[in-house]
Amino acid sequence: MLAVRLISRLLVLSLSLAPRPPWSDLPTRTLTSGGVAGDPVNVAVEGSQVQILADFHAMGWLKADPLSLKDDARLAVDAVFHRLYPTAPVSNLFLFHRPEDFAVEHELGSVAQRDHARFWDTGRKDPGTGLELWIGDASQDVGIEILRRHHIPIGTTHRINPNVDAERARVVSGLQGADKVVTVIMEPGMGATTNGRNGGGDHFSTDGKVALIVLRR
pTM (2 decimals)? Predict the structure, then answer.
């Protein structure tokens, strides 16, 4: 009888911790500061900001510097001279009427090429796991354009790999490889498209789903 009771309690505990993400009515597409549709929401994470940053760091990704005139100017100069800048800022995109709460990235041997993801706190908690729910967009920068004024670098803009699903998969596999993931649930996003275009005019294709990653406590 004791063994049966222990098994029953463990079953109840496991069921109570099963993810039940509060997914309804969440945005599926980022916006630029001008209100133009940007990259699709294609990743989500359950965990705290501290935990998310630590787990990305474990797989070799760093927190991006905040966007500022100083850091963007450094990015432009480093691009001109082909220098590395592994914590270079990312451009702001918007959800919930605010820019991303933070971004993470992994430079690919050049300031012009990197994996990166932005994340926003939804203000919601999963009632099953008790963890905070964050949503975001992940894409891979494959090139950079220097913005100049009077022949002086004043800023940058990146071009993305059109296969944003591949970057979503890279985030999932990286966290799994670092043994940080309990489970991954595919949630509905913006829907499938083969001819999407983000706020910078870059083309992308996607199956339109979001990989929701529940992090290991």
Answer: 0.84
Look at residues 113, 116, 104, 110 and name the one whose alpha carbon lies nearest to residue 78.
110
Cβ partners under 8 Å of residue 77, min gap 6: 83, 153
pLDDT of 61 strictly over 50? yes
Strand boundaries in 14-131, DSSP class E: 29-31, 37-40, 43-46, 62-63, 94-95, 98-99, 102-110, 113-125
Cβ-based neighbours of 184, under 8 Å, separated by 6 or more: 172, 176, 211, 212, 213, 214
The pLDDT of residue 73 is 55
Mean pLDDT score across all residues of the chain: 86
Domain ranges of the chain: 33-215
Q: Which of 212, 188, 204 lies closest to 27, judged by CA? A: 188
Tokens of 15: 């069921």
Q: Is 141 helix (H, G, I), strand (E, B) or coil?
A: strand
